Amino acid sequence: MPATPAWPPKSTPRLFVEQPLALGASLNIAGNSAHYLIAVMRLKEGAPVKLFDDISGEYLATVSCIGKRDLDLTVEAQLRERETTPDLWIAQALIKKDRFDWIAEKACELGVARFVPVLTARCVVDKVKDDRLRAHMIEAAEQCERTALPQIAPLTKLDALLKDWPAERILYFCDERGGAPFLDAISVGPAALLIGPEGGFTDSENACIRAHPYARPVSLGPRILRADTAAVAAISVWMAKNGDWSA
Fold it and tell me: Rounded to two decimals, what is the model's pTM?
């Protein structure tokens, strides 16, 4: 007797939607998402689509109607609840656009809960587009089967970040000038990683960070890392020691 095919198939497209999902809900999909489902995936009525909303989890829907530039979906079952995200933030100084977008994408893939863009003296850019960052995170979450997206904080100057830092959260300062080995310094509890810009922090910024009562200067090893490499390395080390990689 032939085996029953898996449902939904592994090839089922997966899509983030802004609308809160619930059993029996109907959604109209338009724009780029509709083009992808209709023209690229060539879905027909009755075809399955996985949806997630960053609120309640992941759902299975089916195509109920297809138009020229849009299609309707009906939510039929919940596949998973929204995942629990480790309590890790990354406070990343602005760097060149493409590399900054890459960090946002990888932060989502690796399970960071909050992404904080930081403005420092040596930043080569002074603006960030939240909608672009969110688009990169959504694409990463769609491809990697995540059900949660990092929260994007407003762009914050370094002095304001330090002034308003929450007392219950350790700020691991990834400093190329040296510090305690990061793996040894990690402790249980809410945490954040502070990563500098291409040119590093100025002497006065470095001193202010080191003087902060909740900052812990740490080393990421003997090699000088680019900002984007340092961000991914630091997230990975924390996740392996205190995150959900061992679950």
Answer: 0.92
